[in-house]
Amino acid sequence: MEYKYGANEYEGQELEQWMGSANAPGSSDTRLVNKLQSEIIPIDFVNYVSELGLPADTVALDVAHSPYRTVMVRKTARGEDIVKWVGQIGQGVIFMDVIARKNASPVYISDLTKAIYEREFDLGALRYVFASCVMNFNTVDIVMAICRSNGLGNRLTANQTWEASSSGYRALLGSKVGKSVGRFVLGAYGQGVKRIARIAVYATVVAGDFDLRFDIEDVV
């Protein structure tokens, strides 16, 4: 089979199959994370939440009662970050602002995301995962390639959504950021339980920047 977006689309298709069926062969996401330490800080976070039906009354002066938390996790070796996770979590949503991992790290972003979220909230109620201001070169290249092939040019100026099983969806799922979220879903729920139903790309006010939204739904 020829893939419009090459290896990224192929790898995204594999992740889609693993999420959608408990009988799909080949998934090996059984990694565990132990002894994680993170700093949980209340935060006033309002981006995107209103349109998704999530709590948006977070502009109060008393941020201690905000339904969202900021999480910062860093693991260093010889003075260098080998894994880093910075973002916000709330009931039903994860915002990943910074995710980085060197190959030497035994901790995977997908496992770290699961450990961070389930410490505070119910995994069963999670509906959205955002990746904010994506800078990963592989993911940026895939988004730009999809935009060009769909007649959108080299600059994303409007929000776009790709549904499951489309070439664009699979290419995004097979990108570096997409694979981290897909493997998080597999590790958190197992095969055939939850899936990423669609992936949205949000154009930001900064030219060339964008955010990704992954919608998590039950497999039916």
Describe the structure.
The longest helix has 15 residues, at 6-20. With 220 residues, the protein is α+β, with helices and mostly antiparallel strands. Strand 4, helix 2 (109-120) and strand 5 form a beta-alpha-beta unit. It has an 8-stranded mixed beta sheet. The radius of gyration is 17 Å and the shape is globular. It has one domain. It is built from 5 helices and 8 strands; from the N terminus they run H-E-E-E-E-H-E-H-E-H-H-E-E.
Oligomeric state as shown = single chain
Element pattern in H and E = HEEEEHEHEHHEE
- Classification by helices and strands: alpha+beta
Strand content: 25-35%
Q: Provide the low-confidence segments as ranges.
A: 28-44
Q: What do the pLDDT scores average to?
A: 79
User: Which strand order does the major sheet show?
Assistant: 1-2-3-4-5-8-7-6
Total E-strand runs: 8
Q: Judging from the principal axes of the Cα atoms, what is the shape?
A: globular
Number of helices: 5
Which range best describes the helical content: under 10%, 10-25%, 25-40%, 40-55%, 55-70% or over 70%? 25-40%
Summarize the model shown.
The chain has one domain.
